[in-house]
Amino acid sequence: MIKAIIIDDERNSRDIIALMLEKYCPGVTIADTATDCADGIEKIKNHRPELVFLDLEMPDGTGFDVLTGTLPGIPFEAIFVTAFEKKFLHVIRFSDVELILKPIDKESLQQAV
Fold first, then answer.
1. pTM, to two decimals
2. What is the pLDDT of residue 88?
3. Confidence bin at 98 (pLDDT 50/70/90)
4. What pLDDT score was predicted for residue 96?
5. What count of other Cβ atoms lies within 10 Å of the Cβ of residue 15?
6. What is the 3-state secondary structure (H, E, C) of the chain?
7. What digits encode the pLDDT tens for the residues 39-55?
8. What percent of the chain has pLDDT over 90?
9. Which residue of 2, 7, 50, 74 could cross-link 34, Cys pair, CB 3.0 to 4.6 Å?
10. What backbone phi and psi angles, to 5 degrees, belong to 14?
């Protein structure tokens, strides 16, 4: 079982990701959700997930802030979820992470996981 956290400032997005994971990715369990970068970093430190779904744009920063704000001793895979296609190239340059564009579709989610 893969333990995951969803970090997104939009409740609807968090709910959709959770519902789609439950339906299409039964090997993934949601340990927690967070609404901003600071809360997300704390929840990553507390739960030590293997997978984190990250929104790119949040009120207190970006998904990249979450990646740089976590302890190096907490390894996890990141899947960025965004509606902003212009950020796509920046995501690819940042590291070997996955990107899912909103609205999320079943195939993109399953491939990223």
1. 0.80
2. 56
3. low
4. 59
5. 13
6. CEEEEEECCCHHHHHHHHHHHHHHCCCEEEEEEECCHHHHHHHHHHHCCCEEEEECEECCEEHHHHHHHCCCCCCCEEEEEECCHHHHHHHHHHCCCEEEECCCCHHHHHHHC
7. 999 999 999 999 999 98
8. 50
9. 7
10. -60, -45
21 contact partners, CB below 8 Å, separation of at least 6: 4, 28, 30, 109, 113
Structure tokens given for 19: 């519902």
Classify residue 92 by burial, with Cβ atoms within 10 Å: 0-12, 13-18, 19+: exposed
Give long-range contacts, CB 8 A cutoff, 24+ apart: 16-21.
16/103, 16/104, 17/53, 17/81, 17/104, 17/109, 20/104, 20/106, 20/109, 21/109, 21/113
